[in-house]
Amino acid sequence: MFLDPNYIRDRIRTVPDWPQAGVMFRDITPLLQDAKTFRALIDMFVYRYMGQRLDLVAGIDARGFILASVVAYELNLGFVPVRKKGKLPFASITEEYALEYGSAAVEMHADAVRPGQRVLLMDDLVATGGTLLAGAKLLQRLGANVVEAAAIVDLPSLGGGDRIRASGLDLYAVCAFPD
Known about the structure:
Rossmann fold, 8-stranded mixed sheet, about 30% helix
């Protein structure tokens, strides 16, 4: 049970037609609300990365913060927030990415990582892959080595996982929803 991806997948709530008709929203909040399930989820990530000589864990705003900060704590590493544009108070760098209808941008402090640092990049879900790819580009622009991108859920039908792997970045997702 503890390290079974189906245990995690079975506890993700699907909300049909949210935020718009035809979308099947994969809601991770039930995972976070149940202490046993949340621990099992975090343990899956910790066991995967405990021997990988990481320096930092970066998390994508906002649900990626939840995972990445706890995983960083458990691995005795620092945490780097990758924020939505306009949220950082210090000198920052920005990376724009395409959305289905428009564009968005993420930012990091310009001193968030040092060249050569080994960084794990985390988010809750991989849809089109744009946010994780933008986060990886920010880290790489500062000279970091992004060891892997990680998420709870991959939605393969939206192609994000393939886009991430095609960029040369390894991707780990605990579970996938095929549609």
